[in-house]
């Protein structure tokens, strides 16, 4: 029973941390309790524990996370190694095409951003390291899904709820399967306003030293600035060269797969 209680404590503590986000960076005790479903006394204990460890702070009425909480994510990124290897390549690609570029890995139903070089804000939601989006609606996600084996591919769709995020989102599994099969054949993917209206992106694959597809790089651009044909003719060669450069560096480095299990 003690072991179960300890696990529950970890789950609750993580829930308190996740209660803080871009929309709610500062919250009262009552708000944290409501967001997590915890009793106020329980939420208070977890908040005070986070404060004692330096992960949270308060002014007496509101609580917020401190920059130290980034250590929790950077522990994973440091062990991964991939973002450190990829970041210079991502920055070079961003300078070359003058657009925002990112690297992501697959985590359950989502892509998670692990490296990024931004030149302008192109989405209503700010994209930072750790940002998550549904894989099926993103160019990087479809590239990563195209690299799954049959068992993992089937498991993804069984565990994922598909919904239209914009009027242009492909939300029928049969159509998504066809699109991902095409991505698998051609080795890259364009997504046009399916994640957010006004946003168009193109993504390619990154392989590790064993040839496994472990990450994806994308270029994101405002819909009105570049036609889809320009993404194919001007952006795609630079994108694939970057993916290959990162893959080459990974092959020369002993790394474990970055897919989060």
SSE layout and pairings?
Elements: H1 2-18, E1 26-27, H2 29-36, H3 40-52, E2 56-58, E3 63-65, H4 70-80, H5 82-97, E4 100-107, E5 110-117, E6 132-134, H6 139-146, H7 150-159, H8 173-186, E7 189-192, E8 199-207, E9 213-222, H9 228-251
Antiparallel strand pairs: 1-3, 2-3, 4-5, 4-9, 5-6, 7-8, 8-9
Helix pairs in contact: 2-3, 5-9, 6-8
Task: Write up what this structure looks like.
46% of the residues lie in helices and 19% in strands. By secondary structure, the chain is α+β, with helices and mostly antiparallel strands. It has two domains: 2-65, Arc Repressor Mutant, subunit A (Orthogonal Bundle); 72-251, GAF domain (Beta-Lactamase, 2-Layer Sandwich). The strands form two sheets. Strands 6-5-4-9-8-7 form a six-stranded antiparallel β-sheet. It has a three-stranded antiparallel β-sheet with strand order 1-3-2. It starts with a helix and ends in a 10-residue tail after the last helix.
- The CATH architecture of the largest domain can be given as 2-Layer Sandwich
Q: Tell me the CATH superfamily of the largest domain.
A: GAF domain
Total number of helical segments? 9
Terminal Cα separation, in Å? 26 Å
Tally of individual domains: 2
Roughly what is the average pLDDT, rounded to an integer? Answer: 88
Instruction: Write the element-wise H/E pattern from the N-terminal end onward.
Output: HEHHEEHHEEEHHHEEEH
Described by the principal axes of the CA atoms, the overall outline is globular
In the CATH scheme, what's the topology name of the largest domain? Beta-Lactamase
């Amino acid at each position: 029973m003690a072991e179960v209680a300890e696990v529950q404590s970890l789950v609750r503590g993580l829930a308190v941390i996740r209660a803080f986000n871009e929309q709610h960076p500062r919250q009262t005790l009552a708000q944290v309790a409501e967001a997590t479903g915890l009793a106020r006394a329980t939420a208070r204990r977890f908040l005070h524990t986070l404060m004692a460890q330096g992960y949270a702070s308060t002014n007496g009425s509101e609580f917020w996370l401190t920059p130290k909480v980034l250590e929790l994510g950077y522990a994973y990124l440091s062990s991964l190694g991939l973002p450190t290897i990829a970041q210079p390549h991502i920055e070079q690609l961003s300078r070359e095409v003058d657009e925002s570029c990112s690297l992501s890995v697959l985590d359950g139903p989502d892509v998670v951003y692990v490296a990024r070089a931004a030149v302008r804000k192109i989405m209503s939601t700010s994209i930072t390291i750790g940002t998550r989006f549904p894989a099926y609606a993103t160019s990087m996600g479809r590239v990563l899904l195209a690299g799954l084996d049959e068992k993992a591919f089937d498991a993804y769709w069984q565990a994922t709820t598909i919904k239209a995020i914009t009027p242009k989102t492909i939300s029928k599994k049969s159509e998504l399967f066809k699109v991902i099969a095409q991505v698998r054949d051609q080795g890259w993917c364009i997504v046009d306003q399916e994640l957010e209206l006004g946003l168009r992106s193109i993504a390619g694959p990154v392989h590790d030293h064993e040839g496994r597809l472990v990450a994806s790089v994308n270029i994101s651009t405002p819909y009105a600035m570049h036609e889809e044909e320009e993404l194919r003719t001007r952006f795609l060669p630079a994108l694939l060269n970057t993916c290959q450069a990162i893959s080459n560096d990974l092959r020369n480095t002993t790394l474990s797969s970055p897919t989060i299990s």
